[in-house]
Amino acid sequence: MSYLKFDKDLMINLEYSLYRNILRTNRKGAYQNTSISGCNTSKYQGLLVMPVPFLDDDNHLILSSIDETVIQHGAQFNLGIHKYNDDNYSPKGHKYIREYNIDSVPKTIYRVGGVILSKEIMFSSKENRLMIRYKLMDAHSPTTMRFKPCMAFRNISQLTRQNDQVDRSYREVENGISTSMYYGYPEFFMQFNKRVDFMYQPYWNQGVEYIQDMQNGDTFKEDLYVPGYFEMPIAKGEEVIFSAGDILVNTSALTDEFNAELKKRTPRSSFYNCLKNSAHQFYYIP
Fold it and tell me: What letter would DSSP give residue 253?
C-alpha cells in the first residue's frame, strides 16, 4: 500500500493538484520541483535546476519540462500541461492521470484509451542529471512516443522571453543530442537508452504563466525554448529511459544505473521512512 498516493479524482482537480508540490534533490545542489499535476506554478520550479559555477553562485533552471505525446493510428494524446492567459491550460495531460504515488520515487500512471503508461522520475545521486523511466504497461495497437523538451537556461529568480541571442545549434550524440542556449552554460545532454529520432523544429513556447507567482504579485509570464522533439516506437512491456544533464552518458548502462539508484532509495512506507528521506536531502557532496 502506498503511503503517499493520489488517485484520478484528486489529480484531475487542478484546484487540488496544482497546490501540491514535489521536491527532489541530489547531493550536488541540483533539484527538481513541480506540482504533482506536472504543471509548473512558480518560476523556481522545473525538471532540472542546478548550479552553474562558471556564471555565479545561484541556481539555474535548465530544463523546465518535457512534454510527452502518445501516438496511435495517427492520433496524438498530449500528456503535458502548461498554464496560459485567462486560465487556459494546454495541453491538458492531467486528465489522463489515473494515479500518482511516491513510494521510492515519484511515479505517474497515465491511461489513454487502451494505453497504460507509467513514468518514474529519478535523480542521479552524485551528478547533475535527471533520469525518467517510461514503461508501456499495456497497449493494443502500435504505439509511438514523442518527447518535447521545454528549456529555459536562466537564473531561477528571473524569467526569459523570446530573443535572438539563443544558440539554436545542436550536435548529435549517442541516442540523443547536446545543446547549450547561451554562452557560459554547460553543454546539456539529452539521451535515451535506445535509438531515437530527433526532429529539429526550433520555436518558442510563448506566454507560459506561473499561477502562484501571479497570485503573489510577482512576475509570472515567460517564453520557453523548444529545440524540436524526439520520437521513437515503444512496445508493450518495454521500458524507455531518458537522461538529461551536463555530462555525456553511456546509454547502454542507463537501465542498470536507474535500477541501482532505485535500490538506494528508502521506500516511503511509513512516516519514519519519510523523515529519513527528508533528512538525506540535506546531505551535500561538493
Answer: G
Q: Write the DSSP string, 61-78.
A: EEEEEEEEEEEETTEEEE
- The one-letter amino acid code at 42 reads S
- Is-above-0.85 flag for pTM? yes
Percent pLDDT > 90 in the chain is 85
Three-state DSSP state, 130: strand
Burial (0-12, 13-18, 19+ Cβ within 10 Å), 204:
middle
- What architecture is domain 5-265? Distorted Sandwich (2.70)
Count of residues making up the chain: 286
**Cell, residue 226:** 523548444
Distance CA 46, CA 195 (A): 26
Where do we find the cell 522545473? 46
Set of cell numbers at residue 119: 513514468
Structure confidence by residue, pLDDT tens digits, 129-175: 999 999 999 999 999 999 999 999 999 999 999 999 999 999 999 99
What backbone torsions phi and psi does residue 232 show, to the nearest 5 degrees?
-160, 150
**Side-chain-side CA neighbours of residue 284 (13 Å):** 6
Q: In what order do the strands lie in the sheet with 239-245?
A: 5-7, 97-102, 106-112, 115-123, 129-138, 239-245, 188-192, 176-179, 171-173
What's the average model confidence in pLDDT over 104-120?
95
Structural domain spans, the chain: 5-265
3-class secondary structure, 56:
coil
